[in-house]
């Protein structure tokens, strides 16, 4: 076996292992509306929305239409389950090319797109990591720890070294995963061609005679994946989508040479507070994610189509700022301000990234929303990371004098580029290795909870994703978590919702859990419109369904652990519409 084949065989093995991570089975037929169901009545750990409508709201009329802004990658405004629940700017005359309401945006009928222009739409962008490396690499690629630097340069150099390492790992992981996806696609396409079918069957895969050991292992992955995903058809679709995503990651997201912002958006990117750019195409080139999110929040409950959104008296405002890649802070800030200025009471933000560039612009917009009484609901992320320890942006914590002082007081000393090895005793001749230097062992640093009390927004809810069954795999295996940074969990696994082309599909992610909470917030506000964002947040957090048993997951060290649910989020539970509305009845 040659070296390349050995490497690919190893990667196939690792890929196969990853399929068996802690997760509830997808080999199950769930009700399309399971996230709205009740654990006791229906056996699914939903948020009891239907029970709330039936028992608490049947004789009540909503007092207000609640506008929920979906800041995302685009929304299909023609979907039949969304058309009746879209926000429409009644002050704007469609298609006349005039800014009738004087808000700075021409023909913004259902929202605005901040990543486009008259020349078209930006579909792809880099990760923020790559954009930052593009800035810092010319300054620090030849720098060492012995180079004289001032305090600012030292901080930038420290960040640069961290980013170089992260980029290398991300690129290697993406390349390795793409290699496996290429191998799987090759087998799938070969089998389809042999059998003269557009899409082969699992039986066709079984009958296929593999050319080598690698293809035999690929067949194993396909069998295992089909079982994990619930069907061969779902696995096939996921592989094709995965191929598309990793192809884009290598071509655009992780490619330092790719940058179409200036050509396709044409704004003054250096001006954080410029807002007069973009176009009114709120769908954009890929509206899958935003359309799915929108359906969870408020898919029409009065028709017999597809699914039921959480909220029954909601209007969806579409704001496009998220490309395939990382969103930019300037666009996020403008998206928040647009939503606030045009009447949104709730903003859903199902996006995030590991690095920041212009956080002060985002902080300013978050404070603006806070002052104007708008609630922000944000997805915690899908890296199974502890957000108490790892950065995740945007977040509710402001860049402030207090934060700077804390950072300075807790600054870690820089490590030298090279540390001479400590001389150790030689082998004693009895076949025993020399004793190791115990001073080299570093104990994990306990989390300093003081930093979580630094200045932060009161109108922010951070959401992790849960699964359908009340067992020790209740935490979705991909979901980020944090005892101090993730407020609540909500259903985000195998969630069926609206997608472009008048269709409905399942998707996983904290991106799906966040709109469950945004929908719940809108539902509460539609019946109790005088509540402030901090009060809605408190109602949602106090009314969670507490999880009394332990759950299992892999922690930041890769260890398999079992902990109580209140060790992975502030509230210790899953949001519950029935409990929240019951509590709201007598809330003061």
Automatic annotation (TrEMBL):
PANTHER family: CEREVISIN-RELATED, PEPTIDASE S8. The keyword Nucleotidyltransferase does not apply. This is S8 family serine peptidase. Belongs to the peptidase S8 family. Residues 64-547 form the Peptidase S8/S53 domain. Residues 1-23 form the signal peptide. The active site is at 72 (charge relay system), 289 (charge relay system), 511 (charge relay system). Keywords: Hydrolase, Protease, Serine protease, Signal. The keyword Transferase does not apply. Pfam families: Peptidase_S8.
């Amino acid at each position: 076996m040659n070296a390349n084949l050995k490497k690919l065989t190893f990667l196939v093995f690792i890929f196969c292992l990853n399929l068996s991570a802690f997760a509830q089975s997808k080999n199950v037929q769930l009700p399309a509306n399971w996230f709205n169901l009740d654990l006791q009545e229906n056996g699914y750990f939903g948020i009891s929305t239907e029970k709330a409508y039936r028992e608490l709201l049947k004789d009540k009329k909503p007092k207000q239409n609640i506008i929920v802004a979906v800041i995302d990658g685009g929304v299909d405004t023609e979907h039949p389950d969304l058309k009746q629940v879209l926000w429409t700017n009644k002050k704007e005359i469609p298609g006349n090319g005039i800014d009738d309401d004087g808000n700075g945006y021409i023909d913004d009928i259902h929202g605005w797109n901040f990543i486009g222009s008259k020349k078209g739409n930006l579909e792809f962008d880099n990760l923020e990591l790559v954009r930052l490396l593009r800035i810092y690499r010319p300054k620090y690629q030849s720098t060492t720890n012995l180079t004289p630097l001032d305090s600012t340069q030292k901080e930038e150099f420290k960040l640069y070294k961290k980013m170089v390492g992260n980029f290398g790992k991300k690129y290697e992981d993406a390349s390795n995963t793409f290699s496996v996806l290429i191998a799987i696609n090759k087998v799938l396409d070969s089998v389809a061609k042999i059998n003269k079918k557009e899409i082969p069957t699992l039986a066709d895969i079984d009958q296929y005679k593999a050319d080598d050991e690698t293809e035999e292992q690929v067949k194993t992955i396909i069998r295992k994946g089909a079982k994990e995903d619930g069907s061969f058809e779902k696995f096939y679709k996921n592989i094709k989508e995965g191929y598309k995503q990793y192809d884009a990651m290598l071509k655009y997201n992780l490619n330092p040479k790719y940058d179409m912002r200036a050509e396709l958006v044409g704004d003054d990117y250096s001006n954080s507070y410029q807002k007069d750019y973009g176009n009114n195409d709120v769908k954009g080139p890929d509206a899958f994610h935003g359309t799915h999110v929108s359906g969870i929040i408020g898919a029409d409950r009065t028709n017999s189509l597809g699914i039921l959104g959480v909220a029954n008296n909601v209007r969806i405002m579409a704001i496009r700022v998220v490309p395939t890649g990382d969103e930019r802070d300037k666009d996020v800030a403008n998206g928040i301000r647009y939503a606030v200025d045009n009447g949104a009471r709730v903003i859903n933000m199902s996006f995030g990234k590991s690095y920041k560039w212009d956080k002060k612009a985002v902080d300013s917009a978050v404070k603006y929303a806070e002052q104007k009484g708008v609630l922000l609901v944000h997805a915690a992320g899908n890296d199974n990371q502890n957000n108490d320890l790892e950065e995740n942006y945007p977040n509710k914590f402001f860049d402030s004098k207090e934060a700077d002082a804390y950072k300075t007081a807790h600054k870690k000393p820089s490590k030298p580029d090279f540390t001479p090895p400590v001389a150790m005793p030689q082998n004693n001749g009895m076949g025993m290795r020399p004793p190791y230097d115990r001073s080299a062992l570093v104990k994990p640093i306990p989390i300093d909870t003081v930093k979580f009390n630094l200045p932060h927004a009161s109108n922010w809810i951070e959401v992790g994703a849960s699964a359908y069954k009340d067992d020790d795999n209740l935490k979705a295996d991909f979901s980020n978590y944090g005892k101090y940074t993730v407020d609540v969990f909500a259903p985000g696994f195998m969630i069926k919702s609206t997608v472009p082309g008048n269709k409905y599909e399942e998707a996983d992610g904290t991106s799906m859990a966040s709109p469950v909470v945004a929908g719940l917030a809108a539902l509460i506000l539609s019946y109790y419109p005088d509540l402030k964002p901090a009060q809605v947040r408190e109602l949602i957090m106090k009314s969670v369904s507490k999880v009394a048993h332990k759950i299992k997951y892999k922690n930041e060290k890769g260890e398999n652990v079992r902990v109580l649910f209140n060790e992975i989020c502030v509230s210790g539970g899953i949001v519950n519409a029935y409990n929240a509305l019951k509590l709201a009845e007598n809330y003061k």
